[in-house]
Every structure is written in structure tokens, then in C-alpha cells.
Amino acid sequence: MENCFSTFQRNISISRFFLTIVIAIPWVLDGQLQAQEIRRSYPTTAEFESTSDEISGLQLSELMQGGPELWTSPKGMTSTLQVMLLLTVLSLAPAILMMTTSFVRIIVVLSLLRQALGTQQLPPNQVIASLSLFLTFLLMTPVWNEVYHEAILPYTDSSAPISLEKAWDAGVRPVRRFMAQQIESGGNSEDVRLFYHYLPATSTEPQTYDDVPLQALLPAFVLSELKTAFLIGFQIYLPFLILDIVVASVTISMGMLMLPPLMISLPFKLMLFVLVDGWHLIVGMLLESFAPFS
């Protein structure tokens, strides 16, 4: 239990670390310019007192009348865009982080399994998403442990902390290696070349996956995961499809044209799935489909 709790704490720390990195990037890039603008625009003590006296004499209606002009001014637009960018990053960061894990392959395969069984909304979306998250935590624990020890601990070390840029490079390295291993094990290295071809022209071609920019490696990894998930889904679909064909042929030969074949085949599908211990086979096949992280 202590190991599980410590692993859960590390996963939370890693998520906070990546969120901090993503949020801090625009502020770091624009930090010096913003600091210079603040120093130039910051009022002196006398100016501040005079401005406070002027504002205190204004009525609320007068302030509201000048609101739209202030909001659409260059300074107002800059603040508005910064807030919008921050909210956009906060809303998209969890989804972007999940795209770098095994979550994509697992949830696609489980969704295809539900369609193959023909059980409509059973298991519910919440159950499929929860099972996908648990399997993702299991598979990504070695990667996140390395991120925690190589990036988060040195960055939060008060005695000798590393810079944000070095922490980012150290934290991305294990995730990049995980994605490269899955792409290579699936034989989908051509996807990397596809996206790299549309990047701005560079002087040298990448020799290893470490030389591939993230803007090309990330979509290549997602595309590779979708291909692998569809291949696994086809293997799952095939026995249920054969069962549907057999049931439909029997019902038609017996003249029961008004009886939906799905109504008859569904109990047989469930019985077959339970007898062969389908959940154990599916989850085991999913776990074995991922290349071991090293």
C-alpha cells in the first residue's frame, strides 16, 4: 500500500510538473519584455497618490462608460489575450499529456470491444475510461518514475536546483524514448517521416528519434497507436462477426425474418466471452502489445 501511495503521489507530482512547464513557457519567453514594460509604466509615489485621488472622485457609471474603450486598447488586449491563452493551455494540457501515454490505444480497443459485443452502452463510458486510466498508470509508472527522479526532484531541490529549461529537457527525454519505442515496435516509423516532411526545412535529416522535434513525434505516435489499436480491434471483432453470420443464417433458414439476429446472438456472445475469460485475454493482450520501457 505504501508503494502504491508513493507511486500515486509521484504521478500527481509529474502532472503538476508538466502543467507548470506548459503554463510557464509563454511567460518565460515574454518575461523580459513584460518586466521592461512594467518598470517603464510603474508610477512613482506622487503619481500613484494623484491617480488614486482622481479615481476616488469618479463615479462607477463613469468608469463603466470608459470600459469598452479600455478593454479594446492595446494594453487591455494584451491582458485579455494572456488570460485567454492561460485558460486554453489549462483546458488542453491534460488531453495533450494523455496523448503521450498508452491511453489512446487502450481506450480505442475497449471501445471496439464494446461495439463487437453489441451491448450498446455497456460497459458505460465511465467504466471504460477508468479501466483505461488504471492500465495507463500501470504501464507508464516506469516512465513517470524516471521523469520524477531526473527532472522533478532536481528542479525542486532547494540546495542545488536546476533551471526550468534543463528540467524540461530531462523530463521530456523519458517520454520521448517511450513514444519512440512504441513507434518502432509497431513498425510505423514512416509516420515520423510523414510529419517531419511538413516541418520547416532544416539543414540535416534526423538520425535518431532524439533529433525529431516533438511537433512531428507526437502526431506520429498518436497515429501509430491508432493503427495498432485498430489491428487489435480487428482480431477481437472477427470471432463475434462469425457468430453473427452463423446466427443470421440460421434465423433466415428457419424463416424468422422478423426476428433481429442481434437479439439472438447477444446471449451467445456474452456466454462465449465469459467462458473464454475474455476480459483477462483482452487486458493481457493489451499489456503485451506495448514494448517494454528501457
Report on the architecture of this protein.
Helices cover 79% and strands 0% of the residues. With 294 residues, it is mainly α. It has a domain at 102-294. Helix 1 (2-29) runs antiparallel to helix 6 (74-98), helix 8 (125-156) packs across helix 9 and helix 9 runs parallel beside helix 11. The chain is elongated and about 80 Å long. The two termini are 25 Å apart. Residues 21-40 and 45-66 have low confidence and may be disordered.
Low-confidence stretches: 21-40, 45-66
- Following the backbone from N to C, one meets helices and strands in this order, namely HHHHHHHHHHHHH
Q: How many distinct beta strands?
A: 0
Biggest pleated sheet = none
Give the overall form. Answer: elongated
SS element count, helices: 13
Beta content comes to: under 5%
The portion of residues assigned to helices is over 70%
